[in-house]
Amino acid sequence: MISVPNPRQRLSGNNFFLNILIFAFLLLSTACSSSRSVASVTSIPPSDFTNQSRILVGKLDTLKVFFYPTDQLLPIKSDKLAKEFPNDQIHIAKGKLTKDDTLKIGFVLPFLNDNISLGGRGDINNSVSRWAIHYYTGAKLALEKWKNKGVSFESVVWDSGPDTVSLQKRVLDDPRFLEVPLVIGPYHRDNIKYLANYAKNSGVLLFSPFSAAQNLTEDNPFFYQVNPTIETQISAIVDHVNQYARTEDILIIQKDSDVKLNELFLSSFISKGKQEDEGLPKTLLLSANVNSWVKNLLPELQKREKLVIIMSSYSDEVFLNNLLQELNRESFDKKEIIVYGLSPWLNLEKIDFQLLDMLNFHVSSPYYINTGNSEVREFQQKFYEELGVFPQPEAFQAFDLVNLLFENWIKTGDVFQEDLDHFEAAQFLSAPYQFKKVKTSVDDIEKWQSNRNQNVMILKFSGFGWQKD
């Protein structure tokens, strides 16, 4: 059994029953934007949910369900953003999170409720809304854990919608949002930039759970990037390779359409000083035409006794499968071959797993889920009881992030930010988050640029499953 679940695994079980469950969950996510613990939301039979204008969630908690049009024009003005912290002092500013008896935490996730049809069924095949459902359910299970421990908190959840128009109407126009000092979300790049600007000006701590892109915000100590950047993943691979491989053993292979990744790998080798004594690894650009490989790939493979292959491409499985087949022929000569790739390769569906094992396939990954762990199995069971499907990796990541934030809050209170960059969660299921301050210096003035999760693990495919190397 593969130890890292496929993030794109298909929903299973009775399709009709699951459609009702997912629809019920989507409606619940809209109605749950109230000032009480989300973990206290009572279960409601699917038959109680209709596509009417009002639904009931618990006692005396009846809210209208609104479906907003998204065809209005951009840009959106940000007049509501209270500028509590002048830009020239942002690097020393304190956030809104202060020590009191109750922690308020908000979730802004793309449930995309406006995709619900007149027939009352949501688009369960939409990968974005499915991601949001899995992520929030994982977070909700963590909230239930802290509720059962007697921790006092208030949780609010909003549907961000697909764009900044929806974000403004559904979230920023809700006065309760202005009272929340810590927010997890959103998903879409433009929405991240928009809320990052709000966080920067208001002192709200914003934890962005999905995008790994850089330059989403500037001079913003209140912005936390949960998903490590591609540069961080590449750096982890280069560190791992440099431990035992010589430069002449390393061959960076990429499709001719992925030039940018090659540049990042070479930059990482340069920054780590590999070029000072041995030069840089050789790079080979390959087209999708396998017949052209005889002239440029085979000679490079045959002249090396030890092969360390770095795949600087994302997720073209046909290209990867052809390459692995070629490398497998070289392994017949008893050559030692090790292949490295990036985290998207964890989504492999069409590759012969035996090839991954024989070629010592490694990937860098921000998460590792050990399905043999009893706590992981317990989480999977609870998740299944909650939603009727097994959790995808984002559910585990949300569970771990909420636990990290609560542990740090309980121990540090109003010095939350100061301690978070060296705080480690006591237990985690998939992602041992480690946030570090990213700082810049201009004219000898140091500014706190943002915060990024730096934890990346190297996984090896062994015994028909992913294991930490």
Descriptive notes:
The chain is an alpha/beta fold. It is built from 13 helices and 16 strands. The protein has helices spanning 15-31, 127-148, 164-172, 189-202, 230-242, 259-271, 275-278, 293-302, 317-331, 353-358, 374-387, 393-412, 416-420; strands at 54-56, 62-64, 103-109, 153-159, 182-184, 205-208, 223-225, 250-255, 282-286, 306-311, 336-341, 361-365, 435-442, 445-453, 457-461, 466-468. The strands form 3 sheets. It has a 7-stranded mixed β-sheet with strand order 4-3-5-6-7-14-13, with helices on both faces. A 7-stranded mixed β-sheet has the order 9-8-10-11-12-15-16, sandwiched between helices. Strands 1-2 form a two-stranded antiparallel ribbon. β5 (182-184), α4 (189-202) and β6 (205-208) form a beta-alpha-beta unit. The longest helix is centred in the N-terminal third of the chain and has 22 residues, at 127-148. It is globular. Mean pLDDT is 77; it is low at 1-93 and 115-122.
